[in-house]
Amino acid sequence: MLKIAVMISGGGTDLQSIIDACQAGKINGTIELVISNRQKAYGLQRAQKAGIETAVVKKNDTLIVSMLKERNIDLVVLAGYLAILTDELIDAYPNQIINIHPSLIPSFCGAGMYGMHVHEAVLNRGVKVSGATVHFVSSEIDGGPIIKQVACDISDLDKPEDIQARVLEIEHRILPEVVGLYCDGRIKVENGRAKVI
Fold this sequence. Notes:
Elements: E1 2-8, H1 13-23, E2 29-36, H2 42-49, E3 53-56, H3 61-70, E4 75-78, H4 87-92, E5 97-101, H5 116-125, E6 129-136, E7 146-153, H6 160-183, E8 187-190, E9 193-196
Parallel strand pairs: 1-2, 1-4, 2-3, 4-5
Antiparallel strand pairs: 5-6, 6-7, 8-9
Helix pairs in contact: 1-6, 5-6
């Protein structure tokens, strides 16, 4: 079984979806560590309730890399982690860090596009379809190989909170699915493109 670390900043609903999938035997891996850059992130309580080790680390990727290496982590999952990773961390885990983004990359992504900012921008632009993307993390913000995307119709919605809720349903479905595929060795990156085999 692969060893997984999850990095969070907030409520941890995406984290919970992975915890639930692990407990249901749908992922051939175990969450060994949950790291937050915010002391009061509710996701830390979710992890502790599930008996998972937690840590709060702010702006210190050198320490994070050390913690991950000490625990022989195979996969790092960014699940609502609202900080930009340094090259030190990215280079330590090439194509071993995945992120969930609340839009259909390459739309509404990059610097400043996170959380509710994404859904507000989607609403203001008047797009009719949004969704979620799981991708590998690279040095380009939201620019790594895309693993999975699922779209949803949002033409009937007029509040960013409602768009967020609909997109979250997709996130909670596809993030554990991709983690499971990774743990089964079914994701390969060739020529900058991620493929499920």
